[in-house]
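Posting for a labmate who doesn't have an account.
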Amino acid sequence: MDQITDAAFEDLHWDTIDQLHQMDSDELWESIFALRKSGTKRVLDRALCWAKYPDEFHRSIGVSILAQLGPDGKAYPDESTQMIRSMLPTEQSDEVITSLISAVSFREIADATPWLISLANNPSEDIRWRVAWALPIRGIENPPIYQTSIETLVKLMQDPEPRVREWATFSLSMTDEDTPAIRHALLERLSDSDFQTRSEAAIGLANRKEQAGIDLLVEHLQSDRVGELYVQAAEIYADCRLRPALLSLAKWWDVDPELLDKALVACS
């Protein structure tokens, strides 16, 4: 492509975004992704300009594009992170805050962790969900702040909204942190009313080889709704106490026979 064609391509997507003017549009996000991938200096400059607009829609779009620029999503780190950081202390719009959370995560702005933690009590379910998704930010070098991130996830695991609990449980499960408090929190979520949250808790407990989770995992494997994560947890546990439930499951479960076979071998 020559430069004029590139500019026309970008302008087409900017115009599409401006015309749609709604954040939940698939077409809008296709244009955002296209501009992110293009990642030219021209896109950067316009995104920086939009991030300063008085209306929340344009600010949110600007931040969403700054979050990931270029084929690897890492282009123009200094310019992008400087703008993102500058917005954190004063931004009040829920729509823009959700975009900022994603940007902080994608750009791995570790020093923005206290700002993220401060949002854990926000009235917006969407903001709390995004905090649960984003924590902990990679590269945190401050041990107390990192520990507070983990404690915040434990707190969000008790959120009234299922998707917040699910993502907090997932995020915590994927860390290497292992304390009695974390194991207790995961055990509580293994009995959660939400299926996805229970499933993520099963993986977290299996990764930590928490023996108190095995009996309840057996019950879940014997239920009429068994997801892949339950079977994956059994494989990770590799405990013979799980084998009878897996053998019974093999009579009807066809979601991932290969995974079930691996779990059976691991639990032999």
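Reply:
Got it, the structure tokens are right above this. The mean pLDDT is 95.
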